[in-house]
From TrEMBL:
Domain ABC transporter: 2-246
GO cellular component, one term: membrane
Protein name per the record: Phosphonate ABC transporter ATP-binding protein
Keywords tagged on the record: ATP-binding, Cell membrane, Membrane, Nucleotide-binding, Translocase, Transport
Pfam families per UniProt: ABC_tran
SUPFAM superfamilies registered for this protein in UniProt: P-loop containing nucleoside triphosphate hydrolases
Provenance organism: Demequina capsici
Coiled-coil annotated residue ranges, if any: none
GO function term, MF aspect, one: ATP binding
Gene: phnC
């Protein structure tokens, strides 16, 4: 479970990234977070992962208080959280397999990961993770030779190999074409349902948010301004979240 109570995040330059946010995200929920650029979506994800310190309030992730936590505690929290980024963040010049192995690295001494001296069990976990995203035949391909959608699948497999309780995805489909964006969102949804991994996905396309958000959280100016289901999130709700009328850029191209 993820629980924020009155969480405010103030960056060192004085900008408020989160403004008195209270949220409870039960285990296994699939949550889509929407809002314009600068609304605080990335700050929310980075705060849950302990990368940005909580200025005020309480944030408990899987039973651990993150606000004011020691580096050791933060490492413990992070080991249970898989991260997915817009830009995939793979090591491009090495194989898919090695990239996925990096997901298990918090359990593996660094020298072994450099030598690629993986145990049979570690390899099995990596294969299973690649199977979950349907890309096992690419295990020994260099990451640089994959399409964007394939790279994002490898990034998802890398996160899965970590055996996370929570998955945080920051604009995971923003660099992908519309059909590939659909496929990657379906991968995330299927994994959430099959493995009950609590999943938070930042999105800016409202049609994807409606389609995939069992729960949609709308942010504006660091505050939660909507919290409901994808079905409830009609155009009026999105206009309130965005503080403006909707435009063609707000939907995935080809879906309008
Ligand atoms: N490291 C930082 N230092 C100072 N201010 C920051 C920092 N990171 C983000 N901010 C500010 O915090 C606010 C929230 O930003 P955040 O990146 O969380 O928004 P976002 O909704 O994820 O937008 P985007 O989709 O553009 O990333 C913005 O005003 C932003 O300028």
């Amino acid at each position: 479970m993820i629980e924020l109570k009155g969480v405010t995040v103030r960056y060192p330059n004085g900008v408020v990234g989160l403004d008195d946010v209270s949220l409870t995200i039960p285990d296994g929920q699939f949550v889509v977070v929407v809002g314009l650029s600068g609304a605080g979506k990335s700050t929310l994800i980075r705060t849950i992962n302990g990368l940005v310190p909580v200025t005020e309030g309480s944030l408990v992730v899987n039973g651990v208080e993150v606000a004011g936590a020691s580096n050791r505690k933060l490492r413990e929290v992070r080991s249970g959280i898989g991260m997915i980024f817009q830009s995939f963040n793979l090591v491009k010049r090495t194989s898919v397999m090695n990239n996925v192995m990096i997901g298990q690295m918090h359990d593996i001494p660094l020298w072994r990961s450099f030598l690629g001296a993986w145990s049979a069990e570690e390899k099995e976990i990596a294969y299973q993770s690649l199977e979950r995203v349907g890309i096992v035949e690419k295990a020994w391909t260099r990451a640089s030779q994959l399409s964007g959608g394939q790279q994002q699948r490898v990034a998802i497999a890398r996160a899965l190999a970590q055996d996370p309780q929570v998955m945080l995805a920051d604009e995971p489909v923003a660099s992908l074409d519309p059909p590939t964006a659909q496929m990657v969102m379906k991968d995330l949804q299927r994994i959430n349902r099959d493995l009950s991994i609590t999943t938070l996905v930042n999105l800016h396309f409202l049609d994807l948010a409606r389609q995939f958000g069992d729960r949609v959280i709308g942010m504006r100016g660091g505050k939660v301004v909507f919290d409901g289901t994808g079905v409830e999130a009609d155009d009026k709700v999105f206009e309130d979240i965005y503080g403006r009328s909707l435009t063609a850029d707000d939907v995935l191209p080809g879906q309008a």
